[in-house]
Design brief:
Layout lengths: L6 H38 L3 E6 L4 E4 L1 H7 L3 H4 L4 H5 L4 H13 L4 E9 L5 E13 L2 E11 L1 H22 L4 E5 L5 E4 L1 H7 L3 H4 L12 H16 L7 E7 L5 E10 L6 E7 L1 H22 L4 E5 L5 E4 L1 H7 L3 H4 L11 H14 L1 E10 L5 E12 L5 E10 L1 H22 L6 E3 L5 E4 L5
Antiparallel strand pairs: 1-2, 1-5, 3-4, 4-5, 6-7, 6-10, 8-9, 9-10, 11-12, 11-15, 13-14, 14-15, 16-17
Length: 442
């Protein structure tokens, strides 16, 4: 016969059972608390958290799902999730995800579109995992994160980037983005054309000073590059330099540099002014040639502006007028004509015919003496045919007048001699016409 437990043994056993019971109750209470906590977290999570049974029908539908999709838990529970929140082409994709999870696999943060109760699209990240109990699939948990705003911002950023890249690409000037270490990180096609290098040869491989031919200019630009990152106002934005391309040909460029706001990057443009320089040099040579012709013309030449003020004249004009260059500058032409009525007739001809040819009029010198002159005037016009001034050619007729007077005096003297001659004398002009014959010729 076995040993009967004593009272103390029974009492000890009861105490142990009571202690185990209390521990079990405490564990159950902790489990209930944890479950209520997890349910609270689940309900108040910003994401849509949905649990489904093995037939993919909604079991639990948290507040995040209600806010995101617009269905109340009562409207959602028991519904097939794919039929509830998918539409159109996303339905097939959602079914594939469902079959994948029901097969015991997980889906990790795939981007897709789901739809609200009123049919509005919501861009979401979809995650899903199977719920396994006792080695059997008992359901699925699906989590949807709303990324609509992020998607909108990404699209806006992409649109902005496309816009600015289009501006960058089509600016019409060779342009590059330069990093703080002077490496070129982006170029447009204009810089490819100017440099002769391809985008792949430049981007991430070359410093922007690679194209500058003169070492002194390179050193200056590097100093500006560093200075610009300490004090933007301390370095000039524009300067001229010699640019050499891949073939070694030199081009004259204007370099424009500025810091891109809130970055350490620079935007650098190279404006090719070689053709302009060539035209400028050709224009200078032509202007020098015309200046030489103007200055050494045997006639006096004067040029006026649109207001009729003298702005240019040669040394013969200064000598003819008796004024110094400083005294002539800005004077009106009317100050140089002795006969104002004759001057008005000449200007009337200019206004009606837009030119004057060999008009004889007395020129008035500074000392008050009159000089007989022949004046020709032409209007100067702009490319739009607007009158911008005039050019006058004044020929001093004093010597010609004196010679003419001498010829006339000699002719009268000859006529006096010929009139008393016994032989016939006939005079003819340069056209072969008889201009004089003496009495004996009659």
């Amino acid at each position: 016969m076995g040993h009967s437990p004593s009272y103390e043994e029974l009492r000890q056993r009861v105490l142990e059972l009571e202690q185990e019971h209390r521990k079990r109750l405490q564990a159950e209470e902790e489990s209930e608390k944890r479950q209520r906590y997890l349910e609270g977290v689940l309900q108040n999570a910003p994401d849509a958290v949905v649990t489904l049974d093995s037939s993919h029908r909604v079991v639990e539908w948290n507040l995040g799902a209600q806010r995101m999709f617009g269905y109340s838990p009562e409207e959602a529970q028991g519904r097939d999730l794919d039929e509830l929140i998918t539409r159109f082409e996303e339905a097939r994709e959602a079914r594939d995800y469902t079959q994948h999870v029901l097969a015991g696999n997980s889906v990790e943060a795939l981007e897709s579109v789901r739809y609200t109760k009123d049919g509005s699209p919501v861009h979401v990240l979809v995650s899903g995992s199977p719920i396994i109990r006792e080695n059997r699939l008992s359901g699925v948990i699906a989590i949807y994160t709303d990324v609509t705003e992020r998607k909108r911002m990404e699209q806006a950023l992409q649109a902005s980037e496309r816009k600015y890249r289009a501006i960058f690409e089509n600016t019409g000037t060779a342009t590059a983005i330069v990093e703080e270490d002077t490496t070129i990180s982006m170029v447009n096609s204009e810089l490819e054309n100017l440099s002769g290098y391809t985008r792949e040869e430049i981007e991430g491989r070359m410093p922007f000073t690679r194209f500058i031919a003169c070492e002194r200019d390179r050193e200056k630009m590097l100093a500006y590059h560093r200075m610009r990152r300490q004090d933007r106002s301390g370095a000039p934005e524009k300067y001229e330099a010699a640019f050499h391309n891949k073939a070694g040909n030199l081009r004259n460029v204007i370099v424009t540099v500025d810091i891109i706001p809130e970055t350490r990057q620079s935007i650098v443009s190279f404006l090719d002014i070689t053709h302009y320089k060539e035209l400028q040099e050709a224009y200078k040579q032509e202007r020098d040639h015309l200046d030489h012709i103007l200055e050494y013309s045997p006639d006096a030449i004067a040029i006026t502006n649109q207001r009729g003020e003298l702005i240019r004249f040669n040394r013969i004009a200064a000598e003819l007028s008796g004024y110094t260059s400083e005294e002539i500058q800005g004077k009106p032409p009317s100050d140089f004509y002795a006969d104002k009525k004759e001057m008005e007739r000449m200007f009337e001809t200019l206004r009606s015919l837009e030119e004057v040819r060999n008009h004889e009029i007395d020129f008035l010198r500074k000392d008050g003496t009159r000089v007989p002159c022949s004046v020709s005037i032409s209007l100067l016009r702009s490319g739009e045919s607007e009158v911008i001034g005039s050019v006058s050619i004044i020929r001093d007729l004093r010597e010609w007048k004196e010679m003419l007077q001498t010829i006339r005096e000699q002719e009268e003297k000859f006529k006096g001699i010929a009139s008393s001659a016994l032989d016939g004398v006939i005079m003819m002009d340069d056209q072969g016409r008889i201009s004089y014959w003496n009495p004996a010729a009659e």
